[in-house]
Structures are given as structure tokens and as C-alpha cells.
Amino acid sequence: QLQLQESGPGLVKPSETLSLTCTVSGGSISSSSYNWGWIRQPPGKGLEWIGSMYYSGSTYYNPSLKSRVTISVDTSKNQFSLKLSSVTAADTAVYYCARHVGYNWNYLDYWGQGTLVTVSS
Amino acid sequence: QSALTQPPSASGSPGQSVTISCTGTSSDVGGYNYVSWYQQHPGKAPKLLIYDVSKRPSGVPDRFSGSKSGDTASLTVSGLQAEDEADYYCSSYAGSNDVVFGGGTKLTVL
Description:
The structure holds 2 protein chains of 2 kinds. By secondary structure, chain A is mainly β. Chain A contains no helices and 11 strands. In chain A, the strands form 2 sheets. In chain A, strands 2, 4, 5, 6, 9, 10 and 11 form a 7-stranded mixed β-sheet that branches. Chain A has a 4-stranded antiparallel β-sheet with strand order 1-3-8-7, with no helix packed on it. Chain A starts with a strand and ends with a strand. Chain B is an all-beta fold. Helix content of chain B is 0%, strand content 44%. Chain B has strands at residues 9-12, 18-23, 35-40, 47-50, 64-69, 72-77, 86-93, 99-101, 105-109. Chain B is globular. Chain B starts with 8 loop residues before the first strand and ends with a strand. Classes of the chains: A mainly beta, B mainly beta. The A-B interface holds A 39, 46-49, 52, 60, 62-64, 96, 101-102, 104-109, 111-114 and B 1, 3, 32, 34, 36, 38, 44-48, 51-52, 57, 89, 91, 93, 97-104.
């Protein structure tokens, strides 16, 4: 059974860079059939797609976050990562990693449990 | 990129059916058959219910069904059960490698 687990600091200061890692177990992150993504949810609000990465390594981001987001992969550790720069309080949210299926980002079928990141001094 | 429009709330009694709408544009919902629906219980991660408009992953009860007409997708929950009380989100491919979610609908089982 595929499992995803987010990890990283729960508190980030304003203007700094948020960094999270998603560890994938029960399957290879290098599989040519699947892609990987990040989604966030501010407290009490809805879901927002942050960006996703094809198995080939190509990355695509939410246009509203594109200038601040980087998604990368470490196949040797079966992990992929998220970096979000110049954070503000508006970036406080639960951050989820997920498997993104389909050439057209059809759907997200496996999700991590989520990790709360608070932006505060 | 604008969020898809969902009603903030919906409700129904046990055994009844309820339908949740998800309205977009011809650039997202209306333009592609890549609409998915997710169920989220409080404090939990979202769970995939429907993908590619109307397909159900293995393990999802057939009480959950999806459809689409024009720029509006719909999720129908039949035979409502207490455990169906949750938040529901739609999502769609929006072209140019973009993905958009709906604002979410809180389903209450009366």
C-alpha cells in the first residue's frame, strides 16, 4: 500500500523559506506511471493546488504561486520536496503531498496526512 | 485561475439523496473530462471519491456518483449515511498544466 508522509518545520518566520519533504513508501517515486504534487489548506478554508511534478522531473506550478515555488525530487531517498520563498502569514496552512495521476493531472489518489505550517515571528 | 463554485452547504436525511454542484467555465470543467471529487472529514486528509467525471476508485461505495453537463459537474450521494457528513471538494484540470479546486461544500446529515 502506497504511503506518503510530510515532514519539515512547523513554524517559519515571515520572509523566510518554507521547506517540506514528502517521503514515499510502498512504491517507487521513479515509476513512469505517476506524478507527484503539493496541495495546501489554510485553517478553515478550502484546498489549493500548489504544484506538481511529472515522473520525468518536469514541474508545473499554480500561476499565483509560481514565482515563489520550487518542487524537486530525490529519487535515491524516494522523496520529493517543496520550497516556498518569502512566506507571509497568508501561507499558514496544512500542507499535503499527494500522488497526482494522469498526463493532465487527472486526480490525486494517495495523500499524506498533512502537516501544519505556521508563519509567525 | 479562479476557484470552481460550490454551494457552501448541503444537507439531507439518512437514506435520502443529495447532489452537490461544481460550476466552472469552458476553460476547466466544461473543457475537459478531468473532474475529480474528494471527501474530507475533520482533521483528516482528503480522500478521492470520483475521478474523470464519473469513475469510482476501488473501495468507494456505489452510493457516490459523478456527472457533468456543460460547465457544471455534480456529485450525488445516494442513501445518505451518518458517516457521509464531511466536506466535499471538486477539482478540475484547467488547461496549460493548471489545476483548480472548488471552495468546498459542507454536507450535513440531519
